[in-house]
Amino acid sequence: MTSLSTLQSLVQSTVLAKIGPHRDILVAYSGGVDSTVLLHALMILQRQHMPDLHLQAIYIHHGISQHADSWAKHCEQQCLDWQIPYVVEKVTLELEQGNIEEQAREARYLAMQQYLTPNRLLCTAQHQDDQSETFFLALKRGSGPTGLSAMPALLHLDSHSLLRPLLTITRQQIEQYAYSYNLVWVEDESNQDSHYDRNFLRLHVLPVLNQRWPHFNQMVSRSAELCHEQQQLLDELLAADFSALIDADRCLSFKPLLSASQIKRNALLRMWFKLHKSSMPSRKQLEVIWQTVALAKEDSNPEFRLNGRQIRRYQNRLYLLPQYQDIQSVQLTWDLKTSLVLPDGLGQLSVTTSGNNCCRLPLANEQVSVRFHAQGSWHIAGRTGSRQIKKLWQEYDIAPWMRTRIPLIFYNEMLITAVGVFVSVQGQGNQVSYRHKHD
Asked: What are the chain's domains?
């Protein structure tokens, strides 16, 4: 049996090895035994080996439990005793909608991001038993190698990194460590609620498997690691093919995939979704996207919606876009004196005296309005004759979904300019230019 001193050394040396050169760490601290042990181990390292280590603890107040306020106070007192800076962030969850566990996880990371910088490391306290639970949840979802990789010890996000230094430490070792130092922690009553999938695995499934096979969790962690390696290898082997399909706007040219096997095609499509940091579609959804969007008729305008985004096709390329609002009926009056804020995150319009697509100023009896939809035929400056607006969008190579998102400046009922695209004969001049600044 491992001695207490050896166990203490194991936990602390594991944390020390994992944090490497990092000296600025934000610790996700819930007050539970796992995060208490992590924070304590970091505090010991700071005092005994790393005086230049800067620690801060953050407690995320979900407001679900009636004990959340007392837990926050417990964490505050503990950090005061250990002389660790501490902050509380409250988040709001839609308790009647969707997966509460997933909502809480996303809300936690969103709240913590405001305290992170490129040089600051976020540390969370997931351990080997958590890894096993995550692996089984991925199995339940029918995940492939990426999902079965479970949780990486180090995850690089947009502008910071997330470290899980306790992933090789078991729950039993964490509890033994806590008892050896007489640590005090809180118990979340929801951890005993088998309604939650993770708790069901923890309370009713994994104990039976670990009783039968004592090193089961360790073997699951090894399988997760092997899945991660296999996925990395697959990404390396496909990197050159994938790079050849992606343009500067991260659109995907799908014509070369017509001759690829379904397996290779799906792998490349998944790499594209990963590039966009999008939720990963299921295998069935990938096939529907391929059949209904990529292989749709040439003259169609296909669309597939997936978790708040849309997959569109234009000129043999696939686009992964936000789910836009319908603003075709929006009409904004503009006095030209100040910048005009556009709807649905489209940014602002402003007036300048220089730039491309210069126009005339409105006459005294002309009211300026901004719209996002036009009908009929219009005569464009520098061209002969009028053309239907649909033909004009095609000639200027404007994707179908952008044709109702480009600001159109009208003087009364006369189209003057499609900002950044063209000026009509009725609007030509050199007095003013309209500038569109995107958010």
From this structure: 4-223 (3.40.50.620), 246-322 (1.20.59.20), 331-437 (no CATH)
